[in-house]
Amino acid sequence: MNKFPIEAFVNTHDQLLAAVAGLSEDQLQWKQAPHIWSVQEVLSHLVDHSIVISFRIRDILAGTTAQLPAFNQDAWVSGQYSNEGRAADILEAFRALLHYNSLLLRRLSAADAAKTGINFKGETVSVSDIVNGFTRHIQNHLGQIERIKLAAAPV
């Protein structure tokens, strides 16, 4: 029984690859302003978000009653010097986390997918909510990547 659209979740890596296809290192690291993320920083954020949802899902499945953690996305991106890495390495980390999480998600029953925890906003969220929210989150950032590419394009 399919609890959430796993294929949509797994397909996010291919979507990111397509979004950055043909971009040079300079284009991947270009920033419109110091406080605005580059394409590479967006990719790094998505790996960070993958790490966080990996923990949140496992915490819910373990039956913990602790509030699920938040993270300071801007501080994480800047604190790890995301623009000084390589996009290929970032995308490989994203792929590996996505694959590992998809293996877990495929093993879950409908009852597991419905298990809940309390997010950092105090809202009740299920494993299914987290997976679907992550997939939507990727879609938002694909739009952000397109906007960065348009802003960087010569007039």
Strand order of the largest sheet: 1-2
| Oligomer type | single chain
**CATH-derived architecture:** Up-down Bundle
The dominant shape is: globular
Largest sheet: 2 strands, antiparallel
Q: Count up the domains.
A: 1
Keywords:
155 residues; mainly alpha; two-stranded antiparallel sheet; 4% strand; globular; DinB/YfiT-like; DinB-like; Damage-inducible protein DinB
Structure description:
This protein is mainly alpha-helical and 155 residues long. Helix content is 65%, strand content 4%. It is built from eight helices and two strands; from the N terminus they run αααααααββα. Strands 1-2 form a two-stranded antiparallel sheet. Helix 2 (12-20) packs parallel to helix 8 (127-152) and helix 4 runs antiparallel to helix 8 (127-152).
How would you concisely characterize the structure shown here?
Pfam families: DinB_2. The protein has one domain (6-152): dinb family like domain (Four Helix Bundle (Hemerythrin (Met), subunit A)).
Topology readout:
Layout (H helix, E strand, L loop, with lengths): L5 H5 L1 H9 L4 H5 L9 H23 L11 H7 L7 H21 L2 H5 L1 E3 L5 E3 H26 L3
Antiparallel strand pairs: 1-2
Helix pairs in contact: 2-8, 4-5, 4-6, 4-8
